[in-house]
Amino acid sequence: MFAIPGQSPVTVTPAAAKQIARLMAKQDAAGLRIGVKKGGCAGMEYTMDYVAEVDTHDEVVEVDGGARVMIAPMAQMFLFGTEIDYETSLLEAGFKFRNPNVVDACGCGESIKFDETLGTPT
């Protein structure tokens, strides 16, 4: 919906692609659907769900190695330009979103605030 022809709406690092593909196989999923919802102390939260099928309105990003990311329709404008990474440290491991549309985040790192010119998802 909000794509620029010839440009992927999100990029996925090799580490994230490997983890997505591994979890897709483990859960027999068609891909990872990402979105946003209202919540958290900063106002918005990312959502991530492994799903069995692609919704006709999802923006689908195919990644090398068999990983597939679907962007929920209401999240597309908020996620455009985002890099999805997977990081592992001594204390935690998880997906990290580097999103140029985020203007603020809460102290715990669980919620974000988007540039108000993007609108608010319903």
Automatic annotation (TrEMBL):
Ranges annotated as spanning the membrane: none
InterPro entries, per the entry: ATAP, ATAP_core_dom, Fe-S_cluster_asmbl/transfer, HesB-like_dom_sf
Stored Pfam families: Fe-S_biosyn
Residue ranges annotated for the Core domain, each copy included: 10-110
Gene3D superfamilies attached to this UniProt entry: HesB-like domain
Protein name: (Fe-S)-cluster assembly protein
Family (UniProt): Belongs to the HesB/IscA family.
Source species: Jannaschia pagri
Domain of life, source organism: Bacteria
Entries under SUPFAM superfamilies matching the protein: HesB-like domain
